[in-house]
Amino acid sequence: CEGVAEGSNQNIDLVQCEIDLMQKIRTSMTRKIDAIWLDTAASKSTAQALLRLLTSQTGRAEVLSDNYVVMTPLTTEEWREMFVQRFLTEISPFSPSNQARLSYSSEGTILFFSAGNS
């Protein structure tokens, strides 16, 4: 999703990115996903496409395990925190869930979200 830029065609580009992402997930899946790690190299557009995919009940049922965890290091990019927050508010609002921050030394913080009994 690196080619998705802010602008008038962003929604069209995000839809294509979502389609490409779903195809990649389907071809690499041997079982449902139980962990998502959004590393510092991940782009905002990739995170947006993943959220679009997972906010769909069909997409979520196809790829996500009942028990899963989402993790991302927090950076100066505020959208990373919102990415994890949307799992709590939109993707698994009724599942037993937990959210935590792990701060280590002065280097940084990792934000966690877990759904289900994981």
Entry summary:
Strand 3 (97-104) and strand 4 form a beta hairpin. 43% of the residues lie in helices and 27% in strands. The chain is of the alpha+beta class and 118 residues long.
What does this structure look like?
The protein is of the alpha+beta class. It contains four helices and four strands. A four-stranded mixed sheet has the order 1-2-4-3. Strand 3 and strand 4 (108-115) form a beta hairpin. Helix 1 packs across helix 2 (44-55) and helix 2 runs parallel beside helix 4 (79-91). The N and C termini lie far apart (30 Å). The mean pLDDT is 83.
Anisotropy-based shape: globular
The pLDDT mean sits at 83
What composes the largest sheet? Answer: 4 strands, mixed
- Gyration radius, rounded: 14 Å
Secondary structure tally: strands = 4
Q: Roughly what percent helix?
A: 40-55%
**Residue windows where pLDDT falls under 50 for at least 5 positions:** none
- Hey, roughly how much beta strand do the residues contain? 25-35%
> How do the strands line up in the largest sheet?
1-2-4-3
Number of helices: 4
Order of helices and strands: HEHHEHEE
Gap between N and C termini: 30 Å
Strand-pairing-aware structural class: alpha+beta
